[in-house]
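Methods — Computational structure assignment.
A single polypeptide chain was analysed. Its primary sequence is given first, followed by the predicted tertiary structure written as structure tokens.
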Amino acid sequence: MQTLGQTKKPAAKQSGINPFAQALVETESHAHQARQETGKNESQLFSEALAKTGGNLEPKGKNSSQNDLLAQQQAELKKQAERDALRKKLHDQINPVDNHEIYAARQERELKEINQLKKEIALLMSDLGSLQKEAEVTLMTQITQPGQEGSYYKNFFAKLRSFIMLLRQKVKSARTWAKQMNSRKKKMSQRRGGGMVVDSQETKFVQDTMHHEKSTAFSGS
């Protein structure tokens, strides 16, 4: 006789699958599903990044650093150029360049060179005076024994005559050129009311000396 509390439950039907194996399969199934979702997310993120970069897959870190450094250098160079320009502007305002002083210095240098040339010309003229004396001494020398043909003395005096004639022509040309220059200076001075000042005493000295060399030392004409 069976009582209420003693009623037997039907025995559970046992499955042929090992419980451990079933648990392992379920775990792998969940892991596979998670991997699929993760792969989907990674693929989606990759597509979004590719669209934003315009197809450039290179890392932006290095290029970005180089661009930042280049931009910084350009900005510093620009600031330096602005500072230099401002410094030059202030310097010009405080210490303006005096064009008159530069012009005066150049004129002084040119005047020194001209005076040096005039001194050299005076020395050359003195040498011409010495040549006159030496030529006079040579002409005053008495030749007692010219030799059988006298070829040595004839050649000597012939060369001396040619040299003096050539030199006389040079002096004459120099005198003519000097007169033309003096006349041109006077005309320029009259037209411009200034310019070069002609020293009459110095000009007279040059002309007298050249005239003396021409008329006295070289059988002047």
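Note: The longest helix spans residues 99-140.
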